[in-house]
Specification:
328 residues; alpha+beta; twelve-stranded mixed β-sheet; 10 helices; 12 strands
Length: 328
C-alpha cells in the first residue's frame, strides 16, 4: 500500500522495460522508456517489433513529449521502411482474398502496386518521418474549441491529483487507504533489496473505490471539464454486470524497496481464454523521486502545417485516384 500511495505523489518517476503480446498469428514486442516530472512534464519512447507467423516483419519506433504547459510533441522514426513492409503485407494479403481468383503476384505487378501506393503516401511520409510534430493547446482549439478547452481543463486537474500538497491528491491517497483493492496473494521474499509480492484485485473494494471516487473533488472537477452527464455510462455498466465473460488467467508481481517503500518493478503474465490463446507479458523497472530531465524538442513543425500538407497532397492526387483503380 505504501508503494502505491507513494507513487501517486512522487515528484518524478521512470519506467523502462518490455511488453509483449503473442497469439497464433503474430508476435508483438514493445520496448518502452518513460520519464515523468511534476515540474517539467514527461517523455515516452517506444520501439515496436511486429512479426507475423507468415514471415512478415514490421519495426516501428517513436517518441512523445508532454510539456508542463500542456503542449504535446510526437515523432515517428523510419516510417518509410515501415511503410514498405506494410505495403508488402497488404499486397500479399490482398492476393489471398477468397473472393478474387487466386493468381500468383508477379514481381512486376508487385513493383507497380508499391509504386502506386508510394506515389500517394510518399510525400506525407517524407514530411513527417523523423520529424517532431507539436500539438499546442491553441492547435487543439483551432480544430475544436470545446475539445481544446476540455483538454486544458483536464490537464490542470491532473496536475493537482499528482501534486503533493493538494486536496485532490490527499483525497485520492486517503480513498485508496480505505479501499485497498490491490491485495497480496503470495510473498516472493527478497531479491536485490526489494520485497516481491504476487498481487490480485479485490473486486468489491475496487468497486467501492470507484463509487467513492465520484464524491471526491478531483472527480467533480474532471466532470466539470467535460460538462457531460455520466448517468448513461453508469447505466451501461450496470446492465453489463450480468453478462457472462471469460476471465483471463493472470499472474502479477509487484516489487518494492524494503527501505524506501517505493515500487522498483512490476511484471506479470495475462493469458486470455480465447481460441487464439492471446498472451501478454510485461516486465517494467521503475524508479521514483530520482533526478529526471525532460528535453523539450526545439525543432518541430506544427500540427496545422502537417494537416495542411496532407490536405494538399490528397487534393492533388484525388483526380488521379478517381480515374484509375489501385493495383491489386
Amino acid at each position: 500500500m505504501d508503494s502505491l500511495v507513494n507513487a501517486i505523489g512522487a515528484k518524478s518517476s521512470t519506467a523502462s522495460g518490455t511488453i509483449s503480446v503473442a497469439d497464433t498469428n503474430v508476435n508483438v514486442t514493445m520496448t518502452v522508456d518513460a520519464k515523468t516530472s511534476q515540474k517539467d512534464g514527461s517523455s515516452f519512447g517506444a520501439k515496436l517489433a511486429i512479426k507475423a507467423k507468415n514471415g512478415v516483419a514490421i519495426d516501428i519506433a517513436g517518441d512523445a513529449v508532454y510539456a508542463s504547459n500542456g503542449d504535446v510533441y510526437f515523432r515517428a522514426n523510419n516510417l518509410q521502411k515501415s511503410l514498405d513492409a506494410a505495403i508488402d503485407l497488404y499486397i500479399s494479403e490482398s492476393a489471398k482474398d477468397p473472393t478474387v481468383k487466386a493468381t500468383p503476384v508477379s514481381p512486376e505487378s508487385k513493383a507497380e502496386a508499391k509504386s502506386a501506393y508510394n506515389s500517394i503516401l510518399g510525400p506525407v511520409i517524407k514530411k513527417i518521418d523523423n520529424q517532431w510534430i507539436k500539438i499546442s493547446v491553441s492547435d487543439l482549439k483551432d480544430l475544436s474549441q470545446s475539445s481544446g478547452t476540455q483538454y486544458e481543463c483536464t490537464q490542470t486537474v491532473i496536475k493537482k491529483i499528482t501534486a503533493n500538497n493538494t486536496t485532490e491528491s490527499a483525497e485520492l491517497k486517503e480513498l485508496y487507504a480505505k479501499n485497498k483493492f490491490i491485495v497480496v496473494k503470495d510473498n516472493l521474499g527478497t531479491k536485490d533489496g526489494s520485497l516481491g509480492y504476487v498481487v490480485d484485485v479485490d473486486e468489491a473494494k475496487a468497486k467501492k473505490f470507484g463509487d467513492d471516487f465520484k464524491n471526491t473533488k478531483a472527480y467533480k472537477e474532471l466532470n466539470d471539464c467535460s460538462k457531460s452527464d455520466t448517468s448513461q455510462t453508469d447505466n451501461t455498466t450496470t446492465k453489463t454486470d450480468d453478462t457472462k465473460t471469460t476471465t483471463p488467467v493472470t499472474h502479477i508481481e509487484v516489487w518494492v524497496d524494503q527501505w524506501s517503500h517505493m515500487m522498483t518493478a512490476i511484471k506479470g503474465t495475462v493469458t486470455a481464454s480465447d481460441s487464439d490463446k492471446t498472451k501478454l507479458d510485461f516486465d517494467i523497472k521503475t524508479t521514483f523521486n530520482a533526478p529526471v530531465t525532460i528535453a523539450i524538442p526545439k525543432d518541430s513543425i506544427s500540427l496545422k502545417e502537417v494537416t495542411d500538407s496532407v490536405k494538399s497532397i490528397f487534393s492533388d492526387t484525388s483526380g488521379a485516384a478517381e480515374s484509375q483503380s489501385m493495383p491489386l
